[in-house]
């Protein structure tokens, strides 16, 4: 089994909630995941202080839980108003104050997790993925042992969120899904929309191949929740064994100052899903269930 804690859109800056960040560290310490994934938007405005605070937060997770982390940039991690920097050095502050690696990879004896940078200087809010990067990702998975769990981490959306005012997806989403399904990817972890949801690739990009799951995290440590999570903070706990992917949607409980399960969803592993039965086995999307 492999267990992952998926957080996103932590937004160090004015909307950041320090007490919830402490709750993330406490949860990771108690549950000891095999990997903590942060799918972008470490900062609010790509400022040095915000990245430095985010770096300390990630370091504390690693130290407290004894766990590896994997982070990718989001659109807020590219300067918006510092135009010169946005054009000529869009990742300079991120590299200097948070991490030199924009597209990290994590691999152990059971899983391979590949990060993709979908945040680019001129895309503003909407992301994109390049053909070059997709070719690199396909080649990396081609070198992977056949039995390993294959996961992609990026910031932007591959499928539209339910009950949401923005039905756009990132540029190149269809091409990315094509590469991922051919490469045997089972799970894509993303953020950006500040609302948790899960979608089947086959519901939006029919290929008649076993579908992959696209799982978005809400905003984990900020006050910028949207859609069905307005004003809420959430995260994802993912457990994968030989037969099943289990997603537990976690929400911040203000009174108890801790993350608690909001809902749980179970799905068969990719190789166990039969073509033509995917939509019966997997609804197109799942949302938060509040108490």
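^ structure tokens above, recovered residues below v
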């Amino acid at each position: 089994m492999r267990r992952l804690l998926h957080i996103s859109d932590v937004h160090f800056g004015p909307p950041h909630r320090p007490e919830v960040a402490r709750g993330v560290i406490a949860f990771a310490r108690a549950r000891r995941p095999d990997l903590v994934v942060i799918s972008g938007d470490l900062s609010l405005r790509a400022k040095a202080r915000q990245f430095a605070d985010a770096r300390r937060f990630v370091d504390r997770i690693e130290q407290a839980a004894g766990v590896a982390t994997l982070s990718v940039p989001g659109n807020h991690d590219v300067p918006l108003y510092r135009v010169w920097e946005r054009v000529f050095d869009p990742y300079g502050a991120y590299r200097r104050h948070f991490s030199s690696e924009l597209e990290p990879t994590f691999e152990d004896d059971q899983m391979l997790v590949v990060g993709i940078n979908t945040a680019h200087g001129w895309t503003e809010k909407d992301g994109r993925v390049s053909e070059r990067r997709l070719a690199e990702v396909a080649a990396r998975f081609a070198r992977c042992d056949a039995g390993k769990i294959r996961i992609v981490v990026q910031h932007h959306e591959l499928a539209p969120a339910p009950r949401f005012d923005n039905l756009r997806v990132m540029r190149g989403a269809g091409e990315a899904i094509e590469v991922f399904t051919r490469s045997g990817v089972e799970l894509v972890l993303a953020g950006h929309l500040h609302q948790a949801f899960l979608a089947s690739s086959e519901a939006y990009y029919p290929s008649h191949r076993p579908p992959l799951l696209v799982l978005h995290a809400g905003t984990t440590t900020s006050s910028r929740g949207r859609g069905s999570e307005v004003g809420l903070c959430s995260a994802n706990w993912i457990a994968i064994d030989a037969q099943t992917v289990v997603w537990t949607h976690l929400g911040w409980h203000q009174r108890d100052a801790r993350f608690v399960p909001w809902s749980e969803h179970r799905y068969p592993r990719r190789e166990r899903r039969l073509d033509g039965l995917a939509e019966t086995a997997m609804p197109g999307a799942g949302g938060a269930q509040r108490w």
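The radius of gyration is 18 Å.
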